[in-house]
Amino acid sequence: MKTFIIGVISDTHGLLRPEAVKALRGSEQIIHAGDVGDPEILEDLKNIASVTAVRGNVDKGAWARKLPEMEVVELGGVSIYVRHDISQLDLKPEAAGFAAVIYGHSHVPKQETRGGVLYFNPGSAGPRRFKLPVCVGRLQVE
Fold it and tell me: CA-to-CA distance for 74 and 72, rounded, in angstroms?
């Protein structure tokens, strides 16, 4: 059985830290859950792995309009729904057959399972906000 590693990052707000790049190395896919802040960040992430990104509330301008508000990632027979702000979730993930929902926006890392669906927020990898940690995430799909 093939195992896939997905690097998950969000809320970079124009800052891609070297520690984040290091943590994402070895990923076969990277998901950026929005608030990219600078299109150069997506280009830098593409040097590591294939990138799927959604638009966040701070992503403005022509480059950002090219990013979708939501995206579906299929990897290893698993479907993942990606949206920046979970409060804008427009479907029932368990009914739609999603194994996971990846989101950002709050800057608070969180992982929980509801209705058999993994809800995963990697937290913020960009400029430190309040006393929240700076972090990224990794998911293993089997």
Answer: 7
81-116 pLDDT tens trace: 999 999 999 899 999 999 999 999 999 999 999 999
CA pair distance 78, 42, nearest whole angstrom: 23
| Number of domains comprising the chain | 1
Question: Residue 76: which domain range?
Answer: 4-141
Domain of 101: which CATH number? 3.60.21.10
Q: Which pTM was predicted?
A: 0.95
Is the pLDDT at 1 greater than 80, yes or no?
A: no
> If you compute the radius of gyration of the chain from its CA atoms, what whole number of angstroms results?
14
**Angle ∠(83,28,61) on CA atoms, nearest 5:** 40
Nearest to 5 by CA among 35, 56, 55, 48: 48
Q: Give CA–CA dist 15/36, Å, rounded.
A: 8
